[in-house]
Model the fold of this input.
Amino acid sequence: MYERGPKRVLTFALFLGPSIVGVALFLVGPIVASLGLSFASWDLLTPPTFVGFGNFRRLAANAEFWSALRHTLTFLAGYIPLVMVAGLLVAVALNGRMPARNLFRALYFLPVVTSWVAAALVWKWLLNPSFGLVNNLLAQIGVAGPAWLFDPSWAMASVILASVWKDTGFVMVLLLAGLQGIPRVYYEAASIDGATEPQKLRHITLPMLAPALFFALSISLINSFQVFDQVYVMTGGGPAGATTVLVERIVKNAFSFSRMGYASAMSWVLFVLIFLTTLVFARLQRRFA
Amino acid sequence: MRRPGTGPTPRPLPGSGTPRAGAPATPAADAVGTGAAEGAGASNTGRSRRRPRRPWRFAVKPTIVTLLITVGAVGMLIPFAWMLATSLKPSSALLSIPPSLIPAEPTVEPYRDVMTRFPMARVFLNSAFVAIATTLGQLVLASMSGYAFARFRFRGRNVLFFVYLATLMVPFAVTVTPLFIIVKYLGWTNSYAGLIVPPMFSAFGTFLMRQFFMNLPDELEEAATLDGASTLTTFLRVMLPISGPAFATLGIFAFMASWNSFLWPLLIVSNPDFMTLPLALATLQGLYPGQTEWNLVMAGTVISVVPMIAVFLFAQRWVIEGVSASGLKG
Done:
């Protein structure tokens, strides 16, 4: 830009003004406010009062918070390995030559463009203990299916199952992008040297794919710490509180119990967890990829 | 089993010519790599020189992989089939055991019922309006701010851009409480403004557009500037016309995020007249706890899913680019 004087100011205001105002009001402002609120007690009716680390002490002493954290980590521990392995297998298969390859890629990606509410509703009905498709198919091969979302020990597994179905295509796409970046010369050279397929996978594909794998893994971790939609629709945290997760607790505390400060404190604990995990994985990536 | 015509499948890898030019022309080596189909079809000498492992590789393995991929794809599709099948069943057929994936007597009654039981037509239009408005707003804001960050020189630019980037790292759960209070204070609960305006501001959009403009050569604007065009004119006449790809990526991503968004509408909308599809579906399902009419709910689900799938099928490339660039999901 070459404008000078008032025109320059106007040009700045035009290009950056609206964005800065909005980002300040709807992003930066709320972040700062949330940090402040996490040290305050506020029920929306009476003015907020400063409580220092009171909210965090209450969190540490609250069994509900710990079980929500445990459930979030359980989700993560089940979901991450499954979705990464499924996404990797599908990506490697669909990177090779295969009839109708593009059709398959599109099919595996379909759940990704579906809204979580739609997906969660379908899974809730698929997993209906008496009238759902899954248990009736299981019955045909002589297996008595569990009560899925109604059984505290199966509810989280059900949520994980639905989530793996929904996100396999997402991981696949990220890894396919990585796979397509591997020069084919390497495979040709390995073939000349008589390398077998598993050897090529081990010594060419995996090392070359490491950056994409780390990227997919970090994104999936960040997203799964924030698991909410599917839990809210499929179980609402139940049965008997077996699937409460952090974001669901934050929303409940803020919007059902009007504990604004307490909910904010919990959201910062979540943020720190995500931040630390990302840091650890960035370190690991520097070491291995 | 492999048609000779298929040859090397089209890949965005332009380098496939180079290795063959560099490597000596040994037909056997070539057959191992990309040209197996041509090699096998064209010359018998190539076949005779093969080691025994090669037929295994090309005859058996793809079949197993194709089979497994097909089974997986069926698994991916079953929920959609179940959704569609249920949406075409009369209520009386819902409780029949075993349930069928092909309705015995298909009916569109659930679709009619869901439209009368819930203001679905309005909800659908709400979703469309909110998604389109959010997308347009994001495109305008992101392209202008992205252009400023890419081309303007001003003090504090890097600090400001760092602040934008930092907001990307913060989970929505952190901002949601104060954001709700701000929107409530503005009187935007149960309104289109509340659904559209806050999500319009995404640091991701600014970031994406900045990257795009930074990769364009400065010379593009120089000619226009020398002719005395203002920065705005240069932006509108020179930069926007070549921003199609970036707009498509960001636009489709913003549309999809808005169309599928749930938590934010859930918090600020309680009046069915302002509900978007995901919120309406969740509400519909919870209307009569314990006796959900699944055929109605699935009819609503089909209505909500079909437009997004259509967008995906028509604009696959941009959908995939948007989703993988952001790393965020619907």
Remarks:
- The mean pLDDT of chain A is 91.
- The two ends of chain A are 41 Å apart (CA to CA).
